[in-house]
Amino acid sequence: MSRKRSFLSRLVRRIIIGIYNWKGWRLDGHLPDLPKYVIAGAPHTSNWDFVFFTGATAAEGVEPNFMGKHTLFKGVMKNFMYDMGGISVDRTRRANVTQQVAEEFARRERLALVIAVEGTRSSKGEWRSGFYHIAMAAGVPIVPAWVCNERRILGFGPPVWPSGNYAEDLAKLAAFMRSKLPDYGRYKVLEAQAQRLLKEGGE
Fold it and tell me: In angstroms, how far is the first alpha carbon of the chain from the final one?
């Protein structure tokens, strides 16, 4: 029998979903009817991104997971972090982060892993390749997720199965993001990154 979630995690989740609904956010597109996938979310511009993604996925009937440093999964925070969907990763282990997360995908029947693919809020728009390597190692598709804070819209695109050619697959993801917000600067940077990699023939 699984452990009952902590009261704090249940309360925080209700508050987050309440804020999402109160702000009047809308969905564009849907998550795929698949048990496992990586959600590649961009842009990452605010600490509120976690609230928006939690609310949007809840509207889709999905409880997302996220990666966190193993040091956060200790003491009084341990159960709370796991209950909120956290996956502990230890960068000091022999197995790298990609392997650790791929093992987690293999252990679970369902897993929707949200990754802020730009890495940091200070990014100009280029994506780091970690999300792609995780999807490749786990054998799961990548679901692009775009955000428009001005119109309060969060959208999901069709899943992209990684082919092993990062440049080509990144170009597909970039084309989808540009189709939703053609004039958005960060997505233009993403598209330029993909085109540069295609010309270079690699990552």
Answer: 45
pLDDT tens by residue, 7-30:
899 999 999 999 999 999 999 999
| Beta bridge partners of residue 28, listed in sequence order | 155
Burial 38-50 (b: 16+ CB within 10 A, else e): bbbbbbbeeeebb
DSSP reduced 3-state for 70: helix
pTM given for the model: 0.93
* Sequence-ordered list of residues with C-beta below 8 angstroms from that of 62, at least 6 positions apart, any chain: 31, 112
pLDDT at 183: 96
Q: Are strands 142-148 and 36-42 parallel, antiparallel or unpaired?
A: parallel
Selection from 16, 25, 101 nearest residue 66 by Cα = 101
Partner residues linked to 155 by β-bridges: 28, 146
